[in-house]
UniProtKB/TrEMBL annotation, chain A:
Phylogenetic placement of the source organism: Bacteria, Bacillati, Bacillota, Bacilli, Bacillales
Keyword Transport appears in the UniProt entry: yes
Protein name, as recorded: Carbohydrate ABC transporter permease
One annotated GO biological process: transmembrane transport
Gene3D superfamilies: MetI-like
Main location: membrane
Membrane disposition: Multi-pass membrane protein
Keywords: Cell membrane, Membrane, Transmembrane, Transmembrane helix, Transport
Residues annotated as transmembrane: 12-32, 76-95, 107-128, 140-157, 186-207, 241-262
UniProtKB/TrEMBL annotation, chain B:
Alphabetically ordered keywords of this record: ATP-binding, Cell membrane, Membrane, Nucleotide-binding, Translocase, Transport
InterPro entries xref list: AAA+_ATPase, ABC_transporter-like_ATP-bd, ABC_transporter-like_CS, ABC_transpr_MalK-like, ABC_transpr_MalK/UgpC-like, Mo/tungstate-bd_C_term_dom, NA-bd_OB-fold, P-loop_NTPase
Any one Gene Ontology cellular component term annotated for this protein: ATP-binding cassette (ABC) transporter complex, substrate-binding subunit-containing
Ranges where the ABC transporter domain occurs: 4-234
Organism annotation: Paenibacillus arenilitoris
Pfam families, per database record: ABC_tran, TOBE_2
Residue stretches spanning the membrane: none
Protein name: ABC transporter ATP-binding protein
Record keyword Membrane present: yes
Amino acid sequence: MTKAWRYTGLTLGYLLKTAILIVFVFPFLWMLSTSLQTYRETLSYPPTLVPAMPQWINFAEAMSAGPFLTYFKNSAIVTLSIIAIQLLVMIPAAYAFAKYKFPGKNILFSLVLLAFMIPGQVTFIPVYLMMADWGIAKTLLPQIIPFMSNAFGIFLLRQYFMQIPEEIVEAARLDNAGEFKIMRKIMVPMSMPALATIALFSFVSHWNDYFWPLIMTDAEAIRPLTLGIAMLRETEGISNWHIIMAGNVVLVIPILLVYLFCSKQIVKAFVYSGIK
Amino acid sequence: MASIAFKRVSKAFDKHEVIKDLDLTIEDGKFTVLVGPSGCGKTTLLRMIAGLDPQTSGSVLIGGKDVSRIAPGKRGVAMVFQNYAIYPTMSVRENIEFGLVNNKVRKAEREELVEGISKAVGLYEYLERKPSTLSGGQRQRVALARAMVKKPSVFLMDEPLSNLDAKLRVQMRIELIELHKKLGATFVYVTHDQVEAMSMADTIVLMNKGVIQQEAPPDEMYRRPSNRFTAQFIGTPPMNVGELGESGSLFGFRPESAVLSEAQGDEPFSVRGVIATREMLGSETIYQVRSGSGNYMVKCSEDLFAAGQEVYVGVPAAKLHFFGEDERRIDEKESSYGKCMEALRGRSHG
């Protein structure tokens, strides 16, 4: 291959990567840009990407359109509780499935996989009725309880635990470590990449969850951020895109922050499972 | 310190019986090596002592106490695994300390113990390092230190040297012998390598297919193998074994017991053959002699013959072993011993 060919190849590669990057980054930039424009600017033709004068006031307006502090607090409590409870359930379950022999193990694991395949839409009415029955509809609990267990997480973590050599667990047992200590001191530190991945997926899906809270909540006090932002649209009968986008930026920031902290671990998790 | 006893122990994995009604006593303070081909049940025995795979029936006693219902961590045993099984996310210090922390040893005492042990095995400078930054030999030492620091009455080792290169293995062998002398604990060592068994053991327990073939000190196992399997498992090259005619009995001799000469001698075993291969190993030479009655390996300290040369293989009476139809050793005192000797002499000298 000649030098010219190689450069052509490289250039083509970069062009394609740039194209893909634009496809992914553009909507994000568009959101950022719109969130800083005036109402008039959002309607102007041709559209402008760089706002003439950044309208930081949009954020203040979005946040004052409703009890956003409450929404934010609700979202944070719900999402963090879900992740914490999921980890508490998932780690021992995955450990048992990966490292124990017990009767009925395969059937139980199949049930977990089955749970993972049932679409949420099938269960939401019964779950709604159940939660209403329990009389907890006015609390944040209905947004947390249905998601306490994460079948996909159990599956992924079990696969990861299975890669950890049996001897390490046995060595710990000979070192007089109890099963919970083995999980805490050995399995969990060795599975950080997988745990970070699962936690991030869980965070993104529950932070952004719209459908379930929409069904389950009927009061301002328990609504999450996603509902609050969706409601921005309906104020005054016209679409205040600049305000909605300002709200969306606020919604997205925590996800970006979490991703910044987790990205290294996540890449590791996928690299590991690729090699093994 | 503690002796270990197996009493009518059986072990099955999913209905497949690996060990059946086994009785064995491992003496207190001795270096016992369990050796045998892969799948013979030696590791299974070791794991039963540790409590990692408890026996299906029978009982295991450590220091006279039945430990069948005692958890691995409370049996007073420590184990070194083939792949070391070091905790990769902990530093060397944390690795060594883990058992002590779990046993609720006070911090000051812990530090003293860890530092003492790490100095003894040459890891003191590496205490804060992660295991991934250490060499194979150093990781092996971490595994040893982790076992030693708990001051166990029983040390279990499952092929701990097989991941090391040849040179390091020889060095570690000597270190383990010294360690055993220093600690005076009961060592149970599993290997498939008969050289390791011979060089380190006070007692060798040779197993095959879940059955103990012989239990003896190395020299006895070598000089007086109790059956054909033992005779051919211990020693390189293995003992030459041939059939002794219609009776179904067998005769055998070690490669180094034979003498090669150009003229026939008057030894009870003497056959003519041709040297098929010659391996010059420096201090000794191994010949393969092809004869009418079979091939024989002969080990000589001198390199006097060349491939293709015609020679006589002679074995003196004292160096011959006989095995019955059932492949068990026929002792000198038994009446059939003389008959076997006569039969062999008759065959050799017609």
